[in-house]
Design a protein that fits this description.
Blueprint: E1 6-7, H1 18-33, E2 44-50, H2 52-63, E3 67-73, H3 80-98, E4 110-114, H4 117-121, H5 123-131, E5 134-137, H6 145-157, E6 162-164, H7 183-197, E7 203-215, H8 220-234, H9 247-250, H10 255-258, H11 264-280, H12 316-340, H13 348-363, E8 364-365, H14 376-392, H15 394-402, H16 409-412, H17 416-434, E9 447-453, E10 457-458, H18 459-463, H19 471-489
Parallel strand pairs: 1-8, 2-9, 3-6, 3-7, 4-5, 4-6
Antiparallel strand pairs: 7-9, 7-10
Length: 491
């Protein structure tokens, strides 16, 4: 927990260093398979790529000056950048060679990264990402014009194509796409405008790239051990007898089986409900977070806050969990927003970023001189303010963990992957309560990654004949096309 105020959180300027890229590319096989950092589980032992010929042709058009290229990656897990590096450094050059296409070396991409990453993963990560050509973005600044100007210039005239994650952050769900932010579509449209103003004829291409993870082995006993750990954290006793079955084949997920606490789904529901019980009934200084239990009696009648609820299908129990999750996220956000005076508008993810930015303003002070120049009283007051801001942001961090969680995700399709992803998100929530920073996730077996390159979207063609007055509709249309491409690629 932060106890003292910190120097201003300065932007990290991109400074591409070819030798750093070569070093990371050389270490890539180890990074994919081994756990080098506690926050990077990896264990990816097989990578399947579909549509690499499309990527090769688009890249060749970029290299020959026929097009400017933006890569729109799905962002599922923290390992996604490793897969991007593998795609560009291994898969793409081999496919281009087989097609007889000459690509300029090195094959790489500029990209955006969250300025907060070095805060939880260590300062060296910021230097590394900048050395790989990354542009640091403060997501809570609406907008971060400095970063956007740098990105806009690189999209127009950068040495490499530009990669962006439209979801803005990981959601931990391989088969559930989060809300898409309009930033990638805006960058593409800016590039169209800039090319026209410069009298250049390149086409602007937006290429959707979908990432999906599966486990190479459905290790149900390992899942049961993780659930036992979570039960112990919450204070639940593990079932005396645990049914070692595969829910996808042997168990119908619905009201009649959700109460069978010895099965995987029953245990997951029991853990989720117990965790919500604790968080809804916090006492003491955090009593504002307590949710009114009487509100649960209104289940099915809508959201008291006016927020849209997740669908209650396929079962009433999964719908009830969704409702409670919605209310917990809402109350945590309202609690943090009330401390910082933030408006409760926008999506949950946008509200989290806004609270984060406000907390940073009290922790990373650009309005104060260096610490040694302050009087003891001013230092103490600034330290108290920073510590208070860090504490006030904790409910937001909890909400951030649950933003992507749906009570019906497993019930809709009880695959091993969905069980694991949901259980890991619960693990993240509990770990964040116990410790600062990004939780170190347990490794739950070797995984297989599938990368699907979709059809390129010609932003130049989409914007042809459209005036500035239609810009908002065009942004929405491009985002809808991206979402459709992502959804089509899921299996």
């Amino acid at each position: 927990m932060i106890e003292r105020f910190q120097p201003a959180l300065a932007p990290i300027a991109p400074a591409f260093r070819p030798w750093v890229l070569a070093l990371v590319q050389g270490l890539l096989p180890l990074l994919l398979r081994l756990r080098i950092f506690p926050w990077l589980p990896a264990a990816i032992t097989a990578i399947e790529v579909e549509g690499d010929a499309t990527l090769a042709h688009c890249w060749h058009r970029f290299d020959t000056g026929q097009a400017r290229l933006l890569l729109a990656f799905r962002h599922v897990e923290v390992e996604d950048p490793l897969l991007g590096l593998h795609l560009l450094s291994r898969v793409l050059p081999r496919r281009a060679a087989r097609l007889g296409l000459n690509l300029g070396a090195p094959v790489h991409a500029h990209f955006l990264f969250d300025r907060g990453m070095p805060l939880w993963a260590g300062r060296p990560l910021g230097w590394l990402l900048a050395s790989l050509g990354g542009v640091s973005l403060r997501r809570g600044r609406q907008p971060d014009w400095r970063a956007l100007r740098q990105a806009r210039q690189l999209v127009l005239a950068g040495r490499f194509p530009f990669a962006v994650a439209p979801e803005g952050a990981t959601n931990g769900h391989s088969e559930c796409i989060g809300p898409l932010e309009p930033g990638v579509a805006q960058l593409a449209l800016w590039c169209v405008d800039d090319l026209r103003q410069a009298g250049r004829s390149e086409e602007v291409l937006l290429l959707p790239i979908t990432i999906q993870y599966t486990y190479r082995k459905a290790d149900w006993p390992r899942l049961a051990r993780l659930m036992t750990k979570l039960e112990a954290w919450i204070g639940l006793s593990a079932p005396a007898q645990q049914r070692p079955l595969n829910p996808a084949a042997d168990e119908l997920v619905g009201d009649q089986t959700a109460d069978a606490v010895d099965g995987p789904y029953g245990r997951l529901v029991r853990i989720s409900e117990a965790l919500l019980d604790r968080l809804e009934c916090l006492d003491g200084p955090c009593s504002e977070m307590a949710l009114t239990r009487s509100g649960l009696d209104r289940f099915g009648s809508g959201s008291p806050s006016g927020l849209p609820l997740r669908p209650a299908q396929p079962g009433a129990k999964s719908g009830r969990l969704s409702w409670r999750l919605e209310q917990l996220v809402e109350r945590c956000l309202v609690l943090a927003e009330s401390h910082f005076g933030c408006p409760s508008t926008g999506t949950s993810a946008q509200r989290c970023r806004r609270v984060e930015e406000q907390s940073w303003r009290w922790i990373y002070r650009d309005d104060l001189p260096p610490r040694h120049q302050l009087s003891p009283l001013d230092r103490a007051l600034a330290d108290r303010a920073a510590h208070g801001a860090a504490l006030a942001a904790l409910p937001m961090r909890l909400a951030e963990t649950f933003v992507a969680v749906s009570g019906s995700y497993v019930a809709e399709r009880p695959s091993f992957e969905r069980f694991m992803e949901t259980t890991l998100l619960i693990h993240d929530a509990l770990a964040r309560i116990h410790t600062d920073g990004l939780p170190a996730r347990p490794r739950l077996g070797a995984r297989r990654a599938r990368i699907t390159i979709g059809s390129p979207i010609s932003v130049t063609e989409c914007s042809r004949g459209r005036g500035q007055g239609e810009r908002r509709q065009l942004l929405a249309s491009l985002s809808a096309d991206l979402r459709h491409a992502f959804e089509q690629a899921l299996i």
